[in-house]
Amino acid sequence: MVGHVLVQPEVVLAAALELDLLAERLAAAAGWSAPATHVLPSGTEEVSFLAAGHFNSAALSHDRAVAQGILELHHAAATLRSQLAQYLAQDAVRAAGIAAIQV
User: Fold this and answer.
1) Which of 16, 18, 34, 101 is deepest in the core (most CB within 10 A)?
2) Number of domains comprising the chain
3) For residue 53, is it within any domain?
């Protein structure tokens, strides 16, 4: 049926929940791995400090990217919920209009 859309609210809500759970798992994994990605210099010479600085710079970049990913997952879940609420509200208005015509 061209032009017809079937929306199952429980499926959309489940997808939003999965996005939130994925964000939480990502945050937990980032918390567990953070000590391994941030390093101390292995010695007191300049090379050790420079190497540790490069590793820590990469670790900070990774931390920022993970944090952004977590925010985007939560935002996508919130957007799904918001769009579903708007869709259901519009659907109810249209259903009431159709019911009024049929009476």
Assistant:
1) 16
2) 1
3) yes
Cα(27)–Cα(67) distance, integer angstroms: 8
Token code pair at residue 67: 């944090």
Q: Token pair 């010479």 is at which residue?
A: 45
Following CA atoms 80, 86, 91, 92 in sequence, which dihedral angle do they give, to the nearest 10 degrees?
Answer: 130
Q: Confirm whether pTM is higher than 0.85.
A: no
The angle subtended at Cα 54 by Cα 51 and Cα 59, nearest 5°, is 125
Q: Evaluate whether 74 touches 19 at the Cβ level (below 8 Å).
A: yes
Domain holding 43: CATH number? 1.10.287.850
Q: pLDDT tens for residues 28-60?
A: 999 998 888 899 999 999 999 999 999 999 999
